[in-house]
From TrEMBL:
It holds the Pfam family HpcH_HpaI. The lineage of its organism: Bacteria, Bacillati, Actinomycetota, Actinomycetes, Mycobacteriales. One of its GO terms (biological process) is oxaloacetate metabolic process. This is Putative citrate lyase beta subunit. InterPro entries: Aldolase/citrate-lyase_domain, Citrate_lyase_beta/mcl1/mcl2, Pyrv/PenolPyrv_kinase-like_dom, Pyrv_kinase-like_dom_sf. Substrate binds at residues 72, 128. The keyword Metal-binding applies. Mg(2+) binds at residues 128, 154.
Length: 298
């Protein structure tokens, strides 16, 4: 089994709250890392195009924990991709977020054997185009993809839409959001969110939930994070540190969940295959759930 295959099944975020930090603002790196479970140094949308050359140097010299740091590079087909990749290669970081992923991570057409990323890189595939949604199965099966993430706003723009969510004066369809109230996602973003979660689980990797764009709406962000945690997302991404506390609270396991996860993990260490726990058959998917809960506790 290759190193990439090992990382594909083993990677979990270091906690439920991931936070973007613009790569051209190095003075924010340490604070963002301190306030979140993992920091995403952003060379794409969060970084001014004219600042990218300097931002790459910031990434190379960033004094951050590699296990708690992700670098969002520019899309594979963009003119910035090669330089971004070179910068990350020269840095201590090996987990990258790749935007607008639409197929397996190869250069050229789907039959190409030329990998877009070095073999020791882990990739979080950002699904934010119609083609990316349609090709989710192939993307999730890529051996270097360790997680799926999705973006509602870019997807809506690519669809020709004007709003990913119901407005306050609109009447949503039943189940228009986690709370059932206006402000929830419209139908295609909701479908995409579900598909990302389903395809990630099917491939044995994790799913990360999209940002809550209204950074002042802590109640809405909390409702979405509670739903994400219960549905099976491993973490929620934020663009503002003010939402980190409500995300952490939403993902915090109950005492009962923590006890169950500990017992499952202990049982798995003593059994090479499926085993029974309090009348419940524990197999690989339930062990995976226990590991996610344990990660949230840490």
């Amino acid at each position: 089994m290759s190193n990439t295959e090992v990382s594909n099944t083993a990677w979990l975020p270091q906690g439920p709250a991931l936070l973007f930090a613009p790569a051209d603002r190095p003075e924010r790196f340490a604070k963002a890392a301190d306030r979140s479970d993992m920091v995403i140094l952003d060379l794409e949308d969060g970084c001014r195009a004219e600042n990218r050359a300097e931002a790459r140097k910031n990434v190379i010299h960033a004094d951050l924990d590699p296990e708690r740091t992700i670098v969002r590079i520019n899309p594979i087909d963009s003119p910035d991709f090669a330089e971004d990749l070179a910068a990350v290669t020269d840095s201590p970081f090996r987990t990258v977020m790749v935007p607008k992923v639409e197929s397996a991570l190869v250069l050229g057409d789907a039959s190409s054997n030329h990998r877009a990323l070095p073999e020791d890189f882990r990739a979080i595939a950002l699904i934010e185009t119609p083609r990316g949604v349609v090709n989710l199965a192939d993307i999730a099966a890529d051996p270097q993809v360790v997680a799926l993430f999705w973006g509602a706003e870019d997807l809506t723009a690519a669809l020709g839409g004007t709003s990913s969510r119901y407005a306050a004066d609109e009447v949503p369809t039943p189940g228009g959001g986690p709370s059932g109230h206006p402000g929830g996602y419209r139908e295609v973003p909701r479908l995409t969110r579900a598909m990302v979660l389903l395809h990630a689980a099917s491939a044995g990797i994790v799913a990360l939930d999209s940002i809550h764009a209204d950074t002042k709406d802590t109640q809405g962000a909390s409702a979405e994070a509670i739903d994400a945690a219960a549905s099976g997302f491993a973490a929620t991404v934020s663009i503002h540190p003010g939402l980190v506390p409500v995300i952490r609270e939403a993902y915090a396991p109950t005492e009962e969940q923590a006890t169950w996860a500990r017992r499952v993990i202990e049982g798995a260490a003593e059994n090479s295959g499926a085993f029974a726990l309090d009348g419940q058959m524990i197999d690989a998917p339930l062990l995976r759930q226990a590991e996610v809960i344990a990660a949230r506790i840490r």
